[in-house]
Amino acid sequence: MHNTFINCIAAEWIKKRRSFAYWLVMAGGLFIPLINLLIFFCYPKQLLTMHASGDFWKQLFDHSWQTMAFMLLPMGIVMAVSLVTQLEYKNNTWKQVHAMPLSIASIYFSKLVILFIMLLQLFILFNIGTYLCAVIPSLIIRQIPFPGYPIDVNYLLNQNMHFFILSMPIVIIQYAISMHFKNFLIPIGAGLALVIGSLIALSWKFIYLVPYAYSALYFLQNKNPGPPSHNLLAWSLIYSLVIGLLGFGWYVSKKEKG
Q1: Which end of the chain offers a freer environment for a tag, N or C, measured as fewer CB atoms within 10 Å?
Q2: Buried residues in 2-30 as b, exposed as e (16+ CB within 10 A)
Q3: Domain enclosing residue 199, as ranges
Q4: Terminal CA-to-CA distance of the chain, rounded, Å?
Q5: How far apart are CA 88 and CA 80, in angstroms?
Q6: How many domains does the chain have?
Q7: CB count, 10 Å around CB of 206?
Q8: 210: left (phi over 0), alpha (psi -120 to 50) or beta
Q9: pTM
Q10: For residue 46, is it within any domain?
Q11: What DSSP designation does 150 have?
């Protein structure tokens, strides 16, 4: 059983590498760093201001996470999850998958594991790109000093861990919807509507019930002094567990799987 599940994950990884979602993750992870790199080349004073702040790396990563948390991260997840999950529908290979000696659980959760690996890949690319967008200008523009300041690794790991966990419910919700509908426009449309709607409703007192707003809410919590009003990590883990089980049950109960 263990080897079968590992083989399923390996097969899903190979299929993912041939998909548009692979390039979407690459572009999503490096998009903000590339934009920042262009800004720093055109307006080097912005980078010099961060150098003078006394907390260079925190300023840089917070600046980068702002756009990522509010828009690109949730929207990128919606797009990538829908594209990866729809590969079998697109290639009309679901019958071949279910004809193989694999359990439904192996089929369902191996795809979900790949989606989380892709999310981790996006985070790694984003962090490497953010570091390079500060280093490269210092090597080309003489007046910009090299950012040789010590990096608060614990702070960066803590931030990435929070954003990763807060992204998990979106992955699981989009996955459950995408596995149920053959038309990939339905999960993408629903996901983008929820992302945009959650941003519009950020001031709503019950917005903590909407997982699509969690990364933006967490960023805002970090900017406001005092204890957070809601434990977003706990809500995220609860949503992930409950919706993950419901999504699997929904898939198992389908009479026609693909």
Answers
A1: N
A2: eeebeebbeebeebbeebebbebbeebbb
A3: 2-253
A4: 23
A5: 14
A6: 1
A7: 8
A8: beta
A9: 0.91
A10: yes
A11: P
* pLDDT per residue as tens digits for the range 139-198: 998 889 999 899 999 999 999 999 999 999 999 999 999 888 878 788 899 999 999 999
Could you tell me where the beta strands, DSSP code E, fall in the chain?
Answer: none
CA distances from 89 to 66, 78, 84, 125, 256 (A): 35, 17, 10, 29, 12
Contact status, residue 114 vs residue 16, Cβ threshold 8 Å: yes
Residue 80 domain-assigned? yes
| C-alpha distances in Å from residue 119, one per residue of 21, 62, 76, 125 | 11, 19, 10, 10
Does residue 120 register a pLDDT over 70?
yes
Whole-number average pLDDT of the chain = 87
At 20 the pLDDT is: 76
Residue 208, CA atoms < 13 Å, CB-side half-sphere: 14
Q: Is 140 a member of any domain?
A: yes
- Residue of higher predicted confidence among 125 and 95: 125
- Examine residue 258 and state whether it is found in any structural domain, yes or no: no
